[in-house]
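Let us practice reading a record.
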Amino acid sequence: MDFLCIQLIMNDDNPSSAAPERRPRKKSSSSSVGAEQQDVQKSWLDRLSQALLAEPKDREDLIQLLRDSEQRDILDGDAVAMIEGVLAVSEMQVRDVMIPRSQMVVVERDDSMVEFLPTIIESAHSRFPVIGDNRDEVIGILLAKDLLPFATACDFDGFNIRELLRPVLIIPESKRLNVLLKEFRASRNHMAIVVDEYGGVAGLVTIEDVLEQIVGEIEDEHDFDAEESNILDIGNGEYTVRALTPVEDFNEELTASFSDEEFDTIGGVVMGALGHLPKRDETLELEGFSFRVLRADNRRIHLLRARRIGPNEDAFEELLTDGC
């Protein structure tokens, strides 16, 4: 019995006889690769969600986010263009879109209706600044529709332009377009006269000019679709002409004789005669025709109004004076 106890004690003290220590098993290579793939996938999803959900830091990030949304078919192109236009309007000033003073179509205060009515008909505008002694003295705005009762009744003697004038909105050329748009809505005006820092008239701006910065070019009733002819007869001897109309086609349609040796299009002929890239409402008389620029940008002319001039140019005025 004593021998057995001694033997057990010796076995406990001998480290070689101790039970083998269990070591943790190493993971298999396949389990390790799977875990790494999960970590990579999780990291990639985190980065993607952060990129999509992060707030834009500036205007450029916002625009890029909008364009990415367009590429992913979340927003259509027209919506993105309009949003970009709204953002641009908040940074643009009136001087960027106004019609310059020299191109303003105005009515003089002391002119009779017979004298200024042909100008109103030719320009096809709906609103006209009325000036006093010079263009720096704008006394009001005349609406073309207010002339209809007098024109239809041939009551030119009872016409007094001062009774038809609407108040004029005066704004500085540094006013931002988004502020001007709010002012147009509040005052229910569609036209404003722009003045410079010295108080002189610098030009005019309409609500259409502001809206076009948001929605793009607004076509009027004289515009025509792409599948139609390049030349549209609008009556009274006037034509709306695409600037890209070949000179040969213009000559054939309107019995003109413009040369196509230097320019291939009628827009090129007009721009060459002017010597510069014209702006909207700029006019030119050339080889028996009067041209007015209806639409142009900083690269080329888009649309023209052509009218034949000659011995019968005053026929309308004679009709007004003799026919009523």
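A brief commentary: The chain has a mean pLDDT of 77.
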